[in-house]
């Protein structure tokens, strides 16, 4: 057995309250094995303890963490290993790939420096030998022009390329175990597919084992041999991937599988964890939309260009959005999909004038938003709002939730006085599933899903008619994602809201959208009603996007 975790407990010291030391138990007696040349997946919601469990292996935990139990790696108990012994193992025998490559790669070092470091430290290579091996590693992970890319800095590469560099760094010393902590969560479906296939191929060629941490069961079903399901710091189920998907035993495992949006089913609401555990059935009564509802937003030939430096004095035009046109009806949702760099986010920000447009027309009630100025534009702004991808970055950390909700009402003169605005804030919090006690708290006191609910409530303070949702659920785990998607549908039914829903997840887009716009390199390549596009896409690019969607365990080839 390569790795054996036995009765692992991890607690965090939380200071003293009333003279008593406080400890929070995050992992409560977890046990599982990782055999040689196999892939074991750790799955569960945010806060389930899966990342803490994995980071305990190499003690990559904060200084206030306390570990008990046994972590046997090739017979050695890593809980008893000293700092020097752990440093010799890190990067050589056990390596890690993390979720966000930009926070893992050093921004002031070139790619060459970061790949060469473990080669020189652990294998004693010279700089020249390490550079030659670094070039081979970049080629192995699929980076084009590897010799030229060695001199690049992380910010000069796309997200998918950064993740490949992280994998190259991790594989530099041919580790026996690779720990991959949510390595594909922030990537679009085609890049995610490439990274998954790359990791599976490298696992076989290097004869290494993979501990794969994810909340996405679709990805887990395709890549893993064994699945360990965790909740609240405990193992709820540990079984081969085939049994987890075809015959799950634990109610929580069944609930996780039921939460996932599907390309084949069309429920009116997504099941959430509590629904499934309580035995409530999924609703299939899909409410028909009015095909003749009035058009609230008509976009024609929307363009956005950026001017990039070229040479010492020159510059060149980069066309990020090349003439996008569509109509959005009242109470309808337009899904916008495409790979990273397709222009979908730039399009959304440009029609909101968070980027100044390069041309085109955006008609709202017959008036062109792109040519408004002054008080007219301020008035229109309250009617078209945006929810961003990252709920951690979109709320002011110095404002209480009460201040966050009251500020837009004060700016736009909504509510007769402070008491009325406070009452509206409380009502909106309740509408998004939070209570009045949240008003006095700060954003850091909430989970990611709760913060996204607060961001939605902030938009609703202005009584908007159109919401632009830019990857608004992509950072959330499956159960919280289901709750937020159900909430968005409820709010749409209640207030008649129209949504522009930007996402790289086609299963989510299918659930929430009435029509889909497919973008590639700034152009619209296909536009059709959702059901028709999913059933019979016309363009090869759309078919490739659909083919890249993880579908869970489909059986292994003989």
Describe this structure in a few short sentences:
The chain is of the alpha/beta class and 558 residues long. The chain has a domain at 393-463.
Number of distinct helices: 21
The biggest beta sheet, please? Answer: 6 strands, mixed
> How much is the radius of gyration in Å?
25 Å
**Gap between N and C termini:** 25 Å
Q: Structural class, judged by helices and strands? A: alpha/beta
Averaged pLDDT, please?
87
How would you describe the shape?
globular
Number of strands: 20
Explained architecture:
With about 550 residues, this protein is of the alpha/beta class. It has a domain at about 395-465. The protein contains 21 helices and 20 strands. Helix 4 crosses helix 5 and helix 16 (about 420-430) packs across helix 17 (about 450-460). The radius of gyration is 25 Å and the shape is globular. The two termini are about 25 Å apart. This is Dipeptide ABC transporter ATP-binding protein. InterPro entries: AAA+_ATPase, ABC_transp_ATP-bind, ABC_transporter-like_ATP-bd, ABC_transporter-like_CS, Oligopep_ABC_C, P-loop_NTPase. Keywords: ATP-binding, Cell membrane, Membrane, Nucleotide-binding, Transport. One of its GO terms (molecular function) is ATP binding. Belongs to the ABC transporter superfamily.
């Amino acid at each position: 057995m390569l790795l054996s975790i036995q009765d692992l407990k991890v607690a965090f010291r939380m200071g003293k309250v009333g003279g008593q030391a406080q400890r929070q138990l995050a992992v409560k007696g977890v046990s599982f094995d990782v055999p040689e040349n196999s892939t074991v997946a750790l799955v569960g919601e945010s806060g389930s303890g899966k990342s803490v469990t994995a980071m305990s292996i190499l003690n990559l935990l904060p200084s206030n963490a306390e570990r008990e139990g046994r972590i046997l790696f090739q017979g050695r108990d890593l809980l008893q290993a000293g700092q020097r012994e752990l440093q010799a193992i890190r990067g050589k025998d056990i390596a890690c790939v993390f979720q966000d490559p930009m926070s893992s790669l050093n921004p002031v070092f070139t790619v060459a420096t970061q790949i060469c470091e473990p080669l020189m430290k652990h294998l004693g290579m010279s700089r020249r030998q390490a550079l030659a091996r670094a070039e081979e590693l970049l080629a192995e992970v699929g980076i084009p022009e590897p010799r030229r890319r060695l001199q690049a800095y992380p910010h000069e590469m796309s997200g998918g390329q950064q993740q490949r560099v992280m994998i190259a760094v991790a594989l530099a010393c041919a580790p026996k175990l690779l720990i991959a902590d949510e390595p594909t969560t922030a990537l679009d479906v085609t890049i995610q597919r490439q990274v998954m296939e790359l990791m599976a191929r490298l696992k076989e060629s290097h004869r290494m084992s993979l501990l794969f941490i994810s909340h996405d069961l679709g990805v887990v079903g395709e890549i893993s041999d064994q699945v360990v399901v965790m909740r609240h710091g405990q193992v709820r189920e540990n079984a081969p991937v085939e049994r987890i998907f075809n015959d799950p035993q634990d109610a929580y495992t069944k609930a996780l599988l039921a939460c996932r949006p599907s390309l084949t089913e069309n429920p009116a609401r997504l099941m959430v964890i509590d629904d499934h555990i309580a035995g409530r059935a999924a609703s299939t009564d899909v409410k028909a939309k009015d095909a003749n509802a009035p058009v609230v937003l008509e976009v024609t030939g929307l363009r956005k260009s950026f001017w990039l430096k070229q040479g010492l004095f020159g510059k060149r035009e980069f066309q990020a959005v090349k003439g996008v046109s569509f109509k959005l009806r009242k109470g309808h949702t337009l899904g916008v999909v495409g790979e990273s760099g397709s222009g979908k986010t730039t399009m959304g920000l440009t029609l909101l004038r968070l980027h100044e447009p390069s041309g085109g027309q955006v008609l709202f009630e017959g008036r062109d938003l792109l040519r408004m100025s002054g008080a007219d534009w301020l008035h229109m702004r309250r009617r078209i709002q945006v929810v961003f991808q990252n709920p951690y970055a979109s709320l002011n950390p110095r404002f209480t939730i009460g201040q966050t909700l009251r500020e837009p009402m004060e700016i736009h003169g909504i509510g007769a006085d402070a008491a009325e605005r406070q009452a509206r804030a409380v009502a909106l919090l309740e509408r998004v599933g939070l209570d009045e006690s949240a008003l006095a708290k700060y954003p850091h006191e909430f989970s990611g899903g709760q913060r996204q609910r607060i961001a939605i409530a902030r938009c609703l303070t202005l009584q908007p008619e159109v919401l632009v949702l830019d990857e608004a659920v992509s950072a959330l785990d499956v159960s919280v994602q289901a709750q937020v998607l159900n909430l968005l549908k409820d709010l749409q039914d209640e207030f008649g809201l129209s949504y522009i829903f930007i996402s790289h997840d086609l299963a989510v887009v299918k659930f929430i959208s009435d029509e889909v716009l497919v973008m590639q390199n700034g152009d619209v390549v296909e536009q059709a009603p959702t059901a028709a596009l999913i059933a019979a896409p016309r363009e090869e690019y759309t078919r490739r996007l659909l083919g890249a969607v993880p579908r869970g365990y489909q059986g292994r080839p003989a």
